[in-house]
Structure formats: structure tokens, C-alpha cells
Write a structure and sequence with these properties.
The complex is a heterodimer of chains A (328) and B (204). Chain A has helices spanning 12-20, 34-39, 74-79, 81-86, 88-96, 100-103, 108-113, 119-122, 164-170, 272-278, 285-295, 308-324, and strands at 5-8, 25-28, 47-50, 59-61, 66-69, 174-179, 182-187, 210-216, 224-230, 241-250, 253-262, 269-270. Chain A has 328 residues and is of the alpha+beta class. Among the domains of chain A are: 5-52, Uridine Diphospho-n-acetylenolpyruvylglucosamine Reductase, domain 2, CATH 3.30.43; 224-324, Enolase-like, domain 1 (2-Layer Sandwich), CATH 3.30.390.50. In chain A, the strands form three sheets. Chain A has a five-stranded antiparallel β-sheet. In chain A, strands 9-10-11-12 form a four-stranded antiparallel β-sheet, sandwiched between helices. Chain A starts with a strand and ends with a helix. In chain B, strand 4 and strand 5 form a beta hairpin. The chains are: A alpha+beta (328), B alpha+beta (204). At the A-B interface, strand 1, helix 1, helix 2 and helix 6 of A face strand 1, strand 5, helix 4 and helix 5 of B.
């Protein structure tokens, strides 16, 4: 690992100042993605600003909704009583991600900031516009089995690997950030970005900004939820496709719905049109199939990942059926 | 599995630039901070060694490390606690699993300096002298290994799995042990060993 300067911060202010004035500096929280990337020479910061013990690790009930500190651990959130009771979809998604050891280190903010990535990003011998802008994309004509089917660009077809973020996208969360200009709130849908012509940028954070919390509004989705993760092995593998499904039911009628997909795009992929199509409908396989069909508009497969064009709608239907209690 | 009593003294210990006075004047979230007296503002240049206090298997150590030193390398190379294994070195295999303040973590993805002030338990720290930990006994009884390389990580993870309350069924154990890979394929026996310790009800 390349040597770096180490700065330990005890206040958000000092951390933000240190990052804002140094273009080659990065924040370090749990390190489960960053240290990995540094060992492989993919990311080589000159300076790490250790924010791991800033006071942002609490999960607090608010007058409306909940505020989850950016440094709350993934395992801590997944086991939290309030989260399990009111936002179980988030706990399901968290427990589907990584391993128990990694969840004990990975933070909520760090999970959001893990790189959108693929094997070509990790292999420093390969072309990758995300790692080295302008070098080309090895994946587009290469082995692209894990890659995106929505929102790709000529520059990049990698996917964001988080499970937690798929639930946060579905649950209308908001990202709270502190920066040199003060605090701002970013709707979760606007936090991550599509690759476009700048695949090196995974999100819309500005230089010097620090995530301090994620807030979730009160949710009617405490019961009929499911997180379905389809992967090459039963546990501890990235999603080929994942679906976060949440239904608000009145009898068998869908009052409202939330749907998001993972493993299919450069960012958590919210299915707004499919959600709309579910409202007012009766729960049934046919209803869910129609929503899945709508969700797949604009999908595009590559040489090795076209199976996702079938797996994704099937997964949407399956997740909705389980959420609705039509199957176990 | 004897605990190394070697106490590593401060080698080349230095004082570090403290920048607390000016910067801590502006705290963005007043009232929320719980001041950790050991956790002070610190700056270390590349290659410069940072002072670090760790309690490892009940023994307090004052150490110095480069910022890029992982907890795994510190344990193995500096403290000669070689029971913790380096498998993949990228957080994928779990051979390096240790407990930090009681929580299982991958020591290979943990920079040692970030653990300052914490209590680390390694495989060397779980037996009481020659009395093996119940999980060690169970691994022997159920033949929970072949080559043995992943075993320290499996045992540390298995203990945590029970403590976390995730060892009620075989399926649950398989799920919560998925961060520990065994390429010899001793999984059924590992699950049996953990199940037996869980059912035995001993404190782990």
C-alpha cells in the first residue's frame, strides 16, 4: 500500500477543513472498501482523514421518521429495534450484504460511498474510464456478466453493489451532509449518479462534504416488505439482481408501493413507473407481472448479461409476491 | 496456543502535532460528542510512525506503527501473534477474523491506527492456559478442519456468531458464518461444532 499522511479528526469542522484544502485527501470511516482499493493500488490517496469516531453513530427517533448517523455500523442498524419494527426492509437489505465481519466495520455513510465498480475497475492493467478517465471501458466489449442493464453510457456499465442503498432508495430517504458552506439535504434519488461522460464520479457530493446522517420518513411499509437478492452463491456475494419491494395494503388492494432494484445500474434503481402501476390494483401475479414489464422499459443487455433482462422482471414479481404474502 | 507475553516498548516514539486548539473551537454538533480522552487530533506524515495503545488478549501494549499498517500485520509481524492468519488479505476469506471490543472484524481491512484504545482478542487469547475454549474443544471433537489454515478465523467467528444470537439453526449459522471460507470444505463439521457449543449453553 502506498504510504499516506494520516490525520485524525475529532470534530466535523476539522475533518471538512482538512479535506476541502487537500484535493488528494479522502475520509476514512470503516475502510472496508477504501482499504481494499488502496491495497490493490486502485485508489491512492495522499492523505487519509480518520473520521471514524466523530459523534455520528446514533439511531434516533425524530418527530417524524428516524435519523441514522452516518457512522452507525451496518450491523448496528440491521439489529436496531426501531428499524426492525418500522423499517424492516432496511434491515433485510443490510443483512443481505457483505459478511458479518464487514457489517461490523462498514458504516452507513461508507456503504453509500463504496465505489460503483466492476472487475475492470479493480484490475489496474485494464482500461477503465472510472479509474482512469479517458482510458476506455474494458467491460463494454469484455466479460460483462455482472454489469448494468439500465442507465449505462459509452463510458461505463458498472453497477453500484450496495444492498442497503436499494432499501434507502425505496424508502424515500434523505442524505444530510455538512460542507464548507454548511449543511444541505440531498434526496436519496439524487445522491448517486449515472455514469454519463463522468463515470469517475459516483455521486453528487462536493469537495469537502461529509455525510453526517440519513433520515427516513415515517413509513407505512412495516409489514409487507421483501428484499430479494439473486446471486451466484447463497450468501456473501454481490447481487446479479436484487429487488426491494414494499407494499401498503388495504385488504387485497394496493394503497401504495415502493420498488427499487440493485445490480442493474450505476446507481440504486428506483422503479417509479412500476410503483404507480401497482396503486389501486389487487394483489395478484398478473398485477405484479404488468408492473415488472413496465419496470423493464429501456433495459439493454450486453454480451454476457442479457440473462438479467429475464431475471430482473422475474425477481420483481417474486419479491412482490413474497411481500404481499402470496408465496413464502 | 500460548499467549505471547512479549511487551513491545515504544520504539521511536514521537510526539505528534496536535492541532486541536484552533480546529476544535468550532464544533458542528454541540452536545452530541462523547469525548474520548484517548482519541485526540493527530497528524502523521507518510512513513512517520504513530503511537497507539491496544489491549491485546488482556495485555496492554504501547505501540508505534506506520499509518498504513493493518491490524493483521501488526499482530503477526510486530507482536508475533501468528495464530491470526493472512488468507486473501482483502476481506473475502475471514482467516484474519479477530474481536475488537468484542465484535468480530476482518483485521486485514482494519488500519491498526484506527483501533487506538480498543481491546483486541485473537485466537491466542481465548483459552485459559491449557484449558481450551469450548469452541476449540468442539472443533476438535467434530473435526471442524482439514488443513487448519482457516480455523482460527472460523473459531473467532463462531464464538461471535453465538454471542450475536445468530446460531439458533444450522441455516442461520451458515448465513452468519458466510464470511469465513474453508477451501477444504469442512463446513458441515464446522456447523456441527458451533451448534454443539450453542446447545451446550456455555458462556462463550
Amino acid at each position: 500500500m502506498k504510504a499516506f499522511q494520516y490525520v485524525r479528526s475529532t470534530t466535523a469542522k476539522s475533518a471538512i477543513d482538512a479535506l476541502a484544502k487537500d484535493p488528494a485527501a479522502m475520509f476514512l470511516a470503516g475502510g472496508t472498501n477504501l482499504v481494499d482499493l488502496m491495497k490493490r493500488g486502485v485508489t491512492e490517496p495522499d492523505k487519509l482523514i480518520d473520521i471514524s469516531r466523530l459523534p455520528y453513530n446514533k439511531i434516533e427517533k425524530e418527530s417524524s421518521g428516524v435519523r441514522i448517523g452516518a457512522l452507525a455500523l451496518n450491523s448496528q442498524v440491521a439489529e436496531d429495534k426501531l428499524i426492525l419494527e418500522k423499517w424492516p426492509l432496511l434491515a433485510l437489505a443490510l443483512n443481505a450484504g457483505a459478511s458479518a465481519q464487514l457489517r461490523n466495520k462498514a458504516t452507513v455513510g461508507g456503504n453509500m460511498l463504496q465505489r460503483t465498480r466492476c472487475g475492470y475497475f479493480y484490475d489496474t492493467e485494464m482500461d477503465c474510464n472510472k479509474r482512469q478517465p479517458g482510458s476506455g471501458c474494458g467491460a463494454k466489449e469484455g466479460y460483462n456478466r455482472m454489469h448494468a442493464i439500465f442507465g449505462t453510457s459509452e463510458q461505463c456499465i458498472a453497477v453500484h453493489p450496495s444492498d442497503m442503498c436499494i432499501a434507502l432508495a425505496a424508502l424515500d430517504s434523505t442524505v444530510i451532509v455538512q460542507g464548507p458552506k454548511g449543511e444541505r439535504k440531498i434526496p436519496f434519488a439524487d445522491f448517486h449518479r449515472l455514469p454519463g461522460d463522468h463515470p469517475e464520479k459516483d455521486n453528487t457530493l462536493e469537495k469537502g462534504e461529509l455525510i453526517t446522517a440519513v433520515t427516513l420518513p415515517d413509513s407505512p411499509y412495516a409489514k409487507n416488505v421483501h428484499y430479494l437478492k439473486v446471486r451466484d452463491r447463497t450468501s456473501y456475494a454481490f447481487a446479479l439482481v436484487s429487488v426491494a419491494a414494499a407494499l401498503e395494503l388495504e385488504g387485497k388492494t394496493i394503497k401504495s408501493a415502493r420498488l427499487a432494484m440493485g445490480g442493474v445500474a450505476h446507481k440504486p434503481w428506483r422503479l417509479l413507473e412500476a410503483e404507480k402501476a401497482l396503486v389501486g390494483q389487487t394483489i395478484s401475479e398478473a398485477t405484479f407481472q404488468k408492473a415488472a414489464e413496465i419496470a423493464m422499459h429501456g433495459a439493454k443487455g450486453y454480451a454476457y448479461n442479457s440473462f438479467k433482462l429475464k431475471m430482473a422482471p422475474n425477481s420483481i414479481v417474486e419479491a412482490l409476491k413474497i411481500a404481499a404474502g402470496l408465496t413464502s | 496456543m500460548k499467549t505471547s507475553k512479549k511487551k513491545v516498548e515504544n520504539e521511536a516514539r514521537r510526539d505528534f502535532l496536535k492541532q486541536s486548539s484552533v480546529l476544535s473551537a468550532l464544533v458542528l454538533s454541540p452536545g452530541k460528542a462523547v469525548k474520548d480522552p484517548e482519541w485526540e487530533e493527530k497528524v502523521a506524515a507518510p512513513f512517520e510512525k504513530v503511537s497507539l495503545k491496544l489491549e491485546i488478549n488482556g495485555i496492554k501494549h504501547n505501540l508505534t506503527v506506520e499509518p498504513r499498517t493493518t491490524l493483521l500485520d501488526l499482530l503477526r509481524e510486530q507482536l508475533h501473534l501468528t495464530g491470526t492468519k493472512k488468507g486473501c488479505d482483502f476481506g473475502q476469506c475471514g482467516a484474519c477474523t479477530v474481536h475488537s471490543d468484542g465484535q468480530r472484524i476482518n483485521s486485514c481491512l482494519t488500519l491498526a491506527v484506527t483501533e487506538d484504545g480498543k481491546k483486541i482478542t485473537t485466537i491466542e487469547g481465548i483459552s485459559k492456559g491449557d484449558d481450551l475454549h469450548p469452541m476449540q474443544e468442539a472443533f476438535i471433537k467434530h473435526d471442524g478442519f482439514q488443513c487448519g489454515y482457516c480455523t482460527p478465523g472460523q473459531i473467532m467467528s463462531g464464538i461471535a456468531c453465538i454471542r450475536e444470537g445468530h446460531a439458533d439453526t444450522e441455516d442461520e449459522i451458515r448465513e452468519y458464518m458466510s464470511g469465513n471460507i474453508c477451501r477444504c470444505g469442512a463446513y458441515p463439521n464446522i456447523v456441527d461444532a458451533i451448534m454443539e457449543v450453542k446447545k451446550g449453553g456455555q458462556t462463550v
